[in-house]
Design a protein that fits this description.
Layout (H helix, E strand, L loop, with lengths): L2 H19 L8 E5 L5 H10 L3 E4 L2 H14 L5 E4 L8 H4 L5 E5 L2 H11 L6 E7 L15 H9 L4 E8 L7 H18 L5 E3 L6 H6 L4 E4 L1 H4 L5
Parallel strand pairs: 1-2, 1-8, 2-3, 3-4, 4-5, 5-6, 6-7
Bound molecules: pyridoxal-5'-phosphate.
């Protein structure tokens, strides 16, 4: 088997055993393979291995990639937009993304509301939470989270699926995952169906599973180092 195939299988097995050891159903956990900075071929190779969810963080790269692959392949799969999204890129991202993990500020919500009113299928969104004191890290502050979530819930073109966290640099991930799980409980008190949690990357996805992650965003552990 190719190295890519070995790494993919190894991550899938680790997810299954982490789920089992924490009494979770691995069917409830989605592996989003982060394909950013890699050529289209990587997506084709991953599709052949059985991957059906892919993550990208820049529209300039993801837009052409998604269009090219849609034109060449009849495979059905999901694109997850996971990076900071500029409002002037919303229109483009809405053409291919099935999920947005990084709904992180009111101006982006305004733009999404404006552009999704006519949409047939609601865009599935995670609200990105900023658990650090650093506003540069992106994400909605804890004190603004519930009112912001309520605004999303009242947007007909958006479906709030849950919360997303990006680990703070140099912070103990367990503490953050635990906080995310608490916040998810609070959110589910007002929106029971918004029960998904996007957290966990190559270095910490097994820990994230223990804290209830439902969407793992895994790049290098599967793809190897990203070309720069
Ligand atoms: C690149 C990226 C990932 C994947 O990171 P790896 O360490 O390669 O697994 C996950 N989430 C976001 C938001 C990213 O930009």
């Amino acid at each position: 088997m190719s190295e890519l195939g070995q790494r993919y299988r190894s991550v899938v097995e680790k997810i299954a055993s982490a789920a089992e050891s924490t009494n979770r159903d691995s069917e409830q956990i989605t592996l989003v393979v982060v394909t950013k900075n890699h050529p289209d071929q990587l997506v084709y190779d991953l599709l052949a291995l059985g991957a059906r969810d892919f993550g990208e963080n820049r529209d300039q790269e993801a837009g052409p990639k998604a269009k090219q692959i849609a034109a060449e392949s009849s495979e059905r799969f999901n694109w997850h937009f996971i990076g900071q999204l500029q409002t002037n890129k919303v229109k483009s991202v809405l053409e291919y993304a099935d999920f947005l993990h990084s709904l992180d500020r009111p101006s982006l919500l305004d733009e999404l509301q404006k552009r999704t009113t006519e949409r047939e299928n609601a865009l599935k969104v995670f609200v990105q939470v900023n658990m650090t004191e650093d506003p540069e890290r992106g994400g909605v502050n804890l004190e603004d989270l519930m009112p912001f979530a309520e605004r999303v819930l009242s947007s007909p073109g958006l479906e709030l699926v849950g919360l997303m966290g990006v680990g703070g640099l140099g912070v103990n991930p367990e503490r953050e995952f635990e906080r995310m799980a608490e916040l998810s409980g609070k959110l589910q008190a007002i929106a029971p169906e918004a029960n998904k949690l996007s957290m966990g990357m190559s270095g910490d996805f097994e820990t994230a599973i223990a804290y209830g992650a439902t969407h793992l965003r895994i790049g290098t552990a599967i793809t190897g180092n990203r070309p720069t």
